[in-house]
Amino acid sequence: QVQLVESGGGSVQSGGSLRLSCAASGVTRSPYCMAWFRQAPGKEREGVAAINNSGSTRLADSAKGRFTISQDSAKNTLYLQMHSLKPEDTAMYFCAADYQNAGLGCGSLEPASQSDWGQGTQVTVSS
Question: CB of 29 within 8 A of CB of 20?
């Protein structure tokens, strides 16, 4: 059974940086796609960034120029480096992976494209 465990969240001031990590375990093969989503109170879960098994990435418009998604396949770990954080980035950040959908929706940043989810890590940005 796949387990995804996020870490690295916390509280920072506007303009600060954080690096989120997501460690995958319980799998014997690489996922087709891995991605970061976030959900703020009262809002829908939204895609932030995704990376497929070829290394191609997709960033949401809100993340472009500030966030970078990367992965270390040897360590089964996904990262999200976030710079120039804004109060509107405050949310629970979730790691997700697609082991079942052949990565077809990887670039869509839609939650339905992913098959497995972590429990989330909170990011709070104060002004």
Answer: no
